[in-house]
Amino acid sequence: MAFTSDLDQITRAAAGDAAAIRALVNRYSPGVLALATRMLGDSAEAEDVTQETFIRAWKALPSWEPRAKFSTWLHRVALNLCYDRLRKRRELLPDELPDRADTALGPQDRLDQSQRVKAVEAAISRLPERQSAALTLCALQGHSQTEAAEIMDVSVEALESLLARARRTLRAELLEGRNA
Amino acid sequence: MTHSMTDDRLIELIEIWGADPASWPAAERAAGEILLRANPERFAGALAEARALDLMLEALPEPAMPRALTEAIVAAAPRPKAARKEAQRWFGLKTPWAPASGFAAVALGLFMGLTVAPVASADDEMTVEVQELVVSALGFDTATYAVEDVE
Fold first, then answer.
1. pLDDT per residue as tens digits for the range A65-95
2. Among candidates B73, B80, B76, which has minimal Cα distance to A15?
3. Chain B residue with the nearest C-alpha to that of A169
4. Can you give the residue range of the structural domain that contains B38?
5. A47 → closest Cβ in B18, B57, B66
6. What's the fold here for domain A105-180?
7. What residues contact residue A28 under an 8 Å CB cut-off, 6+ apart?
C-alpha cells in the first residue's frame, strides 16, 4: 500500500508537485535524521546528511525505477553517507579511541532518566558502526528483518549476527552492573 | 507456511529481536509464540533480560526535525516545469539579452523623446514644470542645447 502511494507521490514530486514533495519529506526525513543522529552522535552532521540524502533523492526522482522501496533506498543512501563521514573521522583521528566510561546502570546509582539515556546513547555510539546501524534500524526504528538487511546490503543471517553482537555488548555494558 | 521452532532458536529470537513477539521476524513469530505459551518458565530468564534492554532502548528520544531543515530540503526539490521555463526565459543563460534589450529600447526612447522633441518644436513654449523635470532627469537643459543648435 505504502509502496503504491510512494510511487504516485514520487511521480508527482518529480514533476515538481509541491504537495507530493512535502509529503515525502514529512514522511521520511524524521527517520533519516534519527538514523544519522544515532550513527554520527552529532546533530549538525546528522542534519547535513539528511539534507544531502534528499538532494540525492531529488536528483534521482526523474529516472526513478522502483526496484526498491523509496524508504529503503533513502535509508541506504543516508547510511552510506554516515559510513563515509565515520571513515573520514577515523582517517583524521586514527589513534583516538572513545573513552570507555563505566556505564553500567543500577538502582544504587539513582540515575535519573536523562543520565540513563546518555549512558545508553554512549554505549550505542561505542558499538562498531555496522552493529550500531543494525540496532538502530531494527530495535529503534522498527524496520523489518528483510528491510533492514536490504538497507544495509547484507544477508538476513548477517543482520541477525550483527544484532546479536550489538545487544550482547549493550547487555554486558548496561545491565550486568545491576546484577553485581 | 509454518516453521518448526526449537528452544534454542526461540532463545535466539528473544536475544536478537527483543522480548516482544511483534518485533520477531514474521515468518517465525507464530511458531515462537506457540512454544513460548507452552513452556513459559523455560524462557523467563531470557525474556526478562531482553525486556530490560528493550525498555532502555525505547526510552531513547527521537531527534526533532528542525523546521528550517525541512524547508531547506523542500526548497531544493524539483520545480514544476512551467516555473522552470518561465525562470529560464527571464534569468536563464539561453537569451540573457532579451530582457536587457527591452529595457535598453525603453531608455533610448525616453532619451530621444526628451532631446529631439524640443528641437522639432523649438518655438513651442515649455512650461517651467516640464523644464525642471527634464533638467532633473538629464542633468542639463535640453532647451538650451536645442536653441544653440538652431542658431
1. 877 889 999 999 999 999 999 999 988 876 5
2. B80
3. B53
4. 7-58
5. B66
6. Arc Repressor Mutant, subunit A (1.10.10)
7. A70, A71, A74
Q: In B, residues 41-80, which contact A (CB 8 Å cutoff)?
A: 49-50, 52-54, 56-57, 59-63, 65-66, 69-70, 72-74, 76-80
A174 with B53: Cβ contact below 8 A: yes
Is B78–A15 a contact, with Cβ atoms under 8 angstroms apart? yes
Question: pLDDT tens for residues B22-50?
Answer: 999 999 999 999 999 999 999 999 999 99
ipTM for the complex? 0.84
Give yes or no for residue B149 having a pLDDT over 50: no
CA A122 to chain B, closest CA, distance in angstroms equals 11
Residue partners of B99: CB distance under 8 A and separation at least 6: B90
Give the CATH number of domain A1-94; options: 3.10.129.10, 4.10.230.10, 1.10.1740.10, 1.10.10.10.
1.10.1740.10
Q: Does residue B57 have a pLDDT over 90? A: yes
Cell of A43: 546533530
Q: How many angstroms separate the first and last alpha carbons of chain B?
A: 110
Of B16, B50, B70, which has the smallest distance from its Cβ to A29's Cβ?
B70
Mind listing the pLDDT tens digit for each residue in B80-91?
766 555 555 544
Please, are residues A43 and A52 in contact by the beta-carbon 8 Å criterion? no
Co-location of B85 and B140 in the same domain? yes
